[in-house]
Design a protein that fits this description.
The complex is a heterodimer. Chain A is built from 13 helices and 23 strands. By secondary structure, chain A is of the alpha+beta class. Chain B is 21% helix and 35% strand. Chain B has eight helices and 28 strands. In chain B, strands 1, 2, 5, 6, 7, 8 and 20 form a seven-stranded mixed beta sheet that branches. In chain B, helix 1 packs parallel to helix 8, helix 4 crosses helix 5 and helix 5 packs parallel to helix 6. Classes of the chains: A alpha+beta, B alpha/beta. The interface between A and B is large, with 61 and 50 residues. Strand 23 of chain A pairs antiparallel with strand 11 of chain B.
Chain lengths: 494, 414
């Protein structure tokens, strides 16, 4: 069975989901194919979670245009989609006088890119703003903001679906044939036919292009590891603290970033790896990250680290070349009708909504765009229970007794909120999917108490047996079977 | 919001909470209410289907649920009222509790409060094992819940990190249920669990225990496919040439327990950085007047009997406070000396006999635990075997405190 679409988007990262949502403004049949069991599982979910202002991208580049445009859209977009967004500002800190010319260069670049309110401040001003940070001078970017990238990606996807787009999960693309007006895409969820294809496959954009016969792209995976600092230390910094970017480096340097949930991120490293799936963390990098961060923040202690994660940058430049390539957003001449988005590394999260507008324009070159009269830009979620004042909590419980059942003790997540996450519009039925939507299991105990309860609720609500439950899709099984089955199956030597 | 007044409010319906509630009633408090987050009373005992509970107090080896039932019955007998599926969202230093359940939010004003929230397990994040983040990394208590209460097997080939008691108990359970427990790795040079559990849960099943060994990397993208074990040298580094890959589908963590004190922090109760629980006096009163604590929220116990004895003291003190509005001042500071990691309580009044709980720094044998006030010996107690895994509980009679002045020190000596 095959379905007919106007546009097929390959890849459910923040860029792919922003595109699906943007295209749902128009009378277009849109399908998004994602290889994982949820959206935002790749680079989109594993980064610094920052909306950049655009002072460290080259003047005149595609990156600069889309970064600045995207950053301007975020405030309104987050309000529409009920995604938390905070303008905490950023300091790029020079530790010594000889780094000041670098700050001036960054400011000049930012000014020319159209970033507002950039200012170079002295050591005293730094201490007034951030009493725990010592530096000689700093570039202050007050409009820099933080968000939660996986909630953003989920929100875009859910709003796209609400406006008529189709999202297919567990749908790795294995073949692309045909031409403009008549593409055939074979995926883990069957074959779809589409007039146009958008390759938003992130790390795998080169692979997806090759499936369609376009061999001009090459992506080098460059891993970035992060440490997460306990919420108890959240008062150490108020805004983002960045170093002067390392010359010829592959990243922005190890920085300190407050998260929307009150932790501090420390990282990332920048290390080219052989495999695109190698997002393992390492003990060696964890030590280096801590040492580098302590240069700015001596009060930081290795014991403050609660966990680590790593993401992988899709680089279009090899380690031998170094530095950054520009975003590639183009239709390859050998295959019209397919748009490739290649090398969407930092500031890809920031640029995503602007990239989506560019893609819509491109679609418009191939077929006329007519507004979707049913398009509704908003996805309203009630505020998290734990953030509400007691009186409002009381009235919620009075209306819906499920609000009175606290499932996750550490994060105070209610049964009502877990039920909403279980019955999510994308139909994601993994423990991880419920976690990212409701914050259950994300607290101090990491699911020691609520993990089993959430799993049991999923069995009841979805009518699935425990033995089919996974952490994040096929392969990540939670149970080998029931205890009695195990005894027969493993038949121990007696 | 509804408001009600009680004499003593108990937070947590595990063995300590129940023991405290019963003791508070018996000591004369009229209105005692116990608040439990879970669906039933008994706390973590409900998933402990093995026996061995109650040997000190009841002189028999009970299972967890049997032990819990004793206190559930006593709650009924003494007329303690309790609420299940009920979580305390907030506690003020003035002992106002904000309580949430499906029946609604309400405020309870208590003359005295006993905090019995128990403890939680240390997780992978807390010990920072590098590598991938696959499914199949479980804490021992979660595996115990799934296996004993839901008949679910978490894996077939299991490596256990940490030799805490729950991990040892689970090594035996997993083996009996047909899983293969490949080894237990312990980073310390000695086991963290009780000696009897090493014998009954590992030795009896030929499960190797590797000391000075830890997991240095987790492998597998979707599900655990193996772990790298390595020996750790005396200064904390990996001993070169000792790394080896063990293929397994499950890593079970038994790497320590942390007293649950989020609510205590809200009430601005002072916590000890060593125990992770509140600083208390010999009435088990915290730094906030009228707020008491006992059980694993105060300090991680190895035996439920001792947790309950402690809780009975806390419950009785809470009743006294609720009726009299105050308790004798406790001004004698207690300090751990040579060889002692911590002592609870940290303050004593000197007017009543005190049961001190303590743990030693390192294993030893045939030594004395000595209590002193400025050079004067209050008590010395011979201990044949000293192990950090075994909490010591030693009573000092009230008249002994008069033998010296100033702070009291406890040390291991000859």
């Amino acid at each position: 069975m095959s379905q007919e679409y106007d546009v097929a988007v390959v890849g459910g990262g923040v860029v792919g989901c922003a595109i699906a949502r943007e295209l749902s403004r128009y009378q277009l049949k849109v399908v998004l194919l994602e290889k994982e069991s949820d959206v935002g599982r790749g680079t989109s979910g594993k980064n610094s979670a920052v909306v950049h202002t655009g002072f460290n991208v080259p003047v005149g580049s595609v990156k600069a245009r889309l970064n600045v445009a995207g950053a301007r859209m975020y405030g309104e977009l987050c309000a529409q989609l009920s995604v938390p967004f905070k303008r905490v500002g950023k300091l790029v800190v020079a530790l010594t006088p000889d780094q000041v010319p670098e700050l001036e260069k960054l400011k000049a670049t930012g000014d020319r890119n159209g970033v507002s309110a950039l200012e170079i401040i002295g050591g005293d001003a730094i201490r007034r703003m951030e009493p725990n940070i010592s530096g000689y001078a700093a570039l202050h970017a007050p409009t820099a903001a933080i968000i939660c990238p996986f909630r953003m990606t989920i929100a875009l996807a859910e709003n796209a679906v609400a406006n008529g787009a189709t999202i297919l999960l567990d749908a790795p693309v294995t073949a692309i044939s045909g031409k403009a007006g008549a593409f055939r895409i074979t995926s883990g969820q069957g074959t779809v036919r589409s007039k146009l294809v958008v390759n938003a496959a992130g790390l795998y954009a080169d692979h997806v292009a090759r499936l369609a016969g376009v061999r001009r792209y090459k992506i080098w995976p460059c891993r970035g590891e992060y440490l997460i600092i306990d919420k108890a230390r959240s008062d150490l910094i108020h805004g983002m603290i960045y170093p002067v970017p390392p010359k010829g480096g592959s990243g922005l340097g190890v920085h300190l970033t407050p998260t929307i949930d009150g932790n501090i991120l420390l990282g990332p490293s920048a290390e080219y790896v052989r495999s695109k799936s190698n997002d393992a963390t390492t003990a060696a990098v964890a030590r280096t990250l801590m040492q580098e961060a302590q240069q700015f923040l001596p009060a930081l202690n290795p014991r403050d680290v609660i966990t680590a994660y790593a993401g992988i940058r899709p680089k279009t430049v090899s380690s031998a070349v170094g530095g950054f390539g520009d975003f590639i957003i183009e239709e390859a001449p050998e295959l019209p009708g397919m748009l490739h988005l290649v090398g969407i590394e930092s500031p890809g999260l920031t640029a995503a909504p602007a990239i989506a507008q560019d893609v819509a324009q491109w679609v418009g070159l191939h077929q006329p765009l007519q507004a979707n009269p049913a398009f509704h830009p908003e996805r309203k979620l009630p505020a998290p229970f734990h953030e509400l004042p007691t009186e409002q909590q009381a009235s919620l419980v009075a209306q819906d007794p499920d609000y009175g059942q606290i499932v996750c003790r550490c994060e105070t997540v209610t049964r009502s909120e877990v039920l909403r996450a279980i019955h999510n519009p994308l139909g994601v039925h993994t423990l991880g999917g419920v976690k990212y939507r409701s914050r259950v299991t994300m607290g101090r105990c990491q699911g020691g108490f609520c993990g089993p309860r959430v799993e049991e609720m999923m069995e009841e609500e979805l009518g699935l047996p425990a033995t089919t439950m996974t952490q994040r899709g096929p392969g990540s099984w939670l149970f080998a079977g029931t205890t009695k089955e195990l005894r027969t199956a493993c038949a121990p030597k007696l | 919001m509804r408001t009600e007044a009680v004499d003593v409010a108990i937070v947590g319906g595990g063995p300590s909470g129940m023991a405290a509630a019963v003791a508070a009633r018996r000591a004369g408090a009229e209105k005692v209410v116990l608040l439990e987050r879970g669906e039933q009373l008994g706390g973590i005992l409900n998933q402990c289907i093995h026996d061995g509970f109650g040997t000190k107090v009841f002189e028999q080896a009970l299972t967890g649920p049997e032990y819990a039932q004793i206190y559930i019955d006593r709650m009924e007998e003494t007329g303690v009222s309790y609420a299940l599926n009920t979580m305390v969202l907030d506690l003020s230093p003035e002992r106002e509790l904000t309580v949430c359940s499906s029946q609604g939010l309400r405020q309870i004003n208590a003359k005295a409060v006993v905090l019995c929230m128990g403890c939680r397990e240390r997780t992978r994040g807390a010990i920072r094992i590098p590598g991938h983040r696959p499914a199949g990394v479980y804490t021992a208590g979660v595996v115990q819940y799934y296996m004993n209460l839901r008949n679910l097997a978490v894996g077939r080939r299991v490596v256990i990190l940490g030799s805490g008691d729950v991990g040892l108990i689970m090594a035996r359970r997993l083996t009996l249920e047909g899983a293969q427990v490949l080894c237990v790795a312990e980073i310390l040079p000695y086991p963290s669990g009780l000696a009897r559990n090493i014998v009954q849960c590992l030795d009896d099943f030929d499960i190797p225990l590797y000391l000075r060994t830890t997991v240095v990397e987790i492998h597998g993208r979707d599900r655990v496919t193996g772990v790298t074990l390595a020996q750790i040298g005396p200064h904390g580094g990996i001993v070169p040439g000792t790394k080896r890959l063990v293929e397994c589908d499950t890593l079970l963590l038994s790497v320590g327990l942390i007293p649950e004190n989020e609510l205590s922090k809200k009430a601005r109760v002072a916590l000890s950085p060593v125990t992770g629980g509140p600083v208390v006096d010999d009435h088990l009163q915290t730094s906030v007047p009228g707020v008491f604590t006992a059980g694993n929220a105060l300090q991680v116990h190895d035996l439920v009997d001792y947790a309950c004895l402690e809780a009975e003291r806390a419950g009785a003190s809470a009743a006294r406070y609720a009726m009299a509005g105050r308790l004798p001042a406790a001004e004698i500071a207690v300090r751990p000396g040579q060889g002692i990691r911590y002592v609870v309580p940290q303050l004593v009044s000197g007017t009543e006999s005190v049961d001190f709980s303590m743990r030693v720094v390192s294993p030893d044998h045939d030594r004395y635990v000595i209590f002193r006030r400025d050079g004067h010996e209050l008590r010395r107690m011979k201990e044949n075997v000293l192990a950090p895994a075994s909490m010591l509980r030693i009573r000092v009679r009230s008249d002994r405190f008069q033998r010296g002045a100033g702070e009291l020190t406890v040390e291991v000596g000859a």
